[in-house]
Structure formats: structure tokens, C-alpha cells
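pasting for the record
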Amino acid sequence: MTPHHGYSLIRPEDHFWVEVYHLMNSIVQPRPIAWISSLSADGKRNLAPFSYFNICSMNPPMVSNSIFFNRDGSEKDTLKNIKATGEYVVGVVSFEASDKANISSAPFDSGIDEFEEAEVAVVERGPGKPPFIAESPVQLVCELNRTVPLGSGAGTGTLVLGDVREIHLSDSLKSVEWQKGIPPEMLNNVGRMGADFYTKTTDLFRMERPTVKK
């Protein structure tokens, strides 16, 4: 690897936020994708993927995702639903389901069922509960811990912190000793890159964690 010594300075405040958005997305990659199922206050289903997603605590487990405002400054349906009901389901996006997840990201009008639009099978959990995503082998049932507004208007996110109350694994993973983790090839997840690019998680390499002798 060739060391880097010269750098060009870019100050975000000197540029239109969309330009910085594209740059940042191409730097912070690959990003895991949360495929979020939610219900509105009146019971309408919603499904959407979000790539600003990660684990943020583990005892007890908690996940985070940032949901941006729409370009017109309004709140996305997913954020409205989570704030209204306090519960949502996070699934993962495999390579096989990536086309459907992409369709569900379209800016459909409020009240449109993305499960139907993207032809994603529904696993009902009962009245008032957001359904499972049949195309995902893993479902995280999350309870809203808090939302952290980071501003308002286009280009601004709201940080959503959710307590993972239940973890559901597909019967296809019955053979897995889950206490040691799920082998990555069994999920075949995709990651979000910059622009319209995604990456598969099939090109793996392994490095053992370093230790320090004391």
C-alpha cells in the first residue's frame, strides 16, 4: 500500500448538501441495510430499507438507524409510524431479495402498501403488530427507545434507537449454533455503497483479533 501524504480540503458548509451526501455515501461504505416493517397509527403497513443502520449497544441489544426527511422537508412514513406505535421489525436484505428491497425504497404516497408494490410476502403477527418480512430469514422485533432529532428539513436525519425485544430466526437456520453467530454465507446479505451501487458479502477474508501481552 502506498502511503498518502497530500490531501485536498473540502468544507461541507461551502457546498450544497446533496454534493456532500454523495461524497459521504461513497466514503462510508459498505453500509448494512435495515429492511423496516412498520404500521401506521390506523394499521396501514409500510416497508422500506435504510442503509444508515447499525448496532449501537449490546447489553441489552439496541440498534440504531437514521431516517432522513423527504426532499420536501416532510417526515418519512417509517419515522411517523415508529413514533406513533413504538414498535417496528427489522429484517436483513439478501442478494436474492435485493430487487424487492430496492422497489420498496421508492417514494410511494403515504398509505401505499410497499409489501404489495414490491411483491414481498407478509407473515402476520396479529392485530396492531408490524408483520414479518418473509423474504428475510431474520426478524428483529424492536421497541422504540428514543428518537434524536438532528435538525429539520431536507438532508437532515432523525436518529432512531430501538431496543431489540425479540430475535426470530427462520427454520432454514435451525442447524446453526446461533450462540456463535450465523455464518455470513447463510444470510448472503448485501451492503450499500455510493450512488446506485451495492456489494455482496461473498468475498470474505479473516483476521483474528490482536491481543496485547501484559
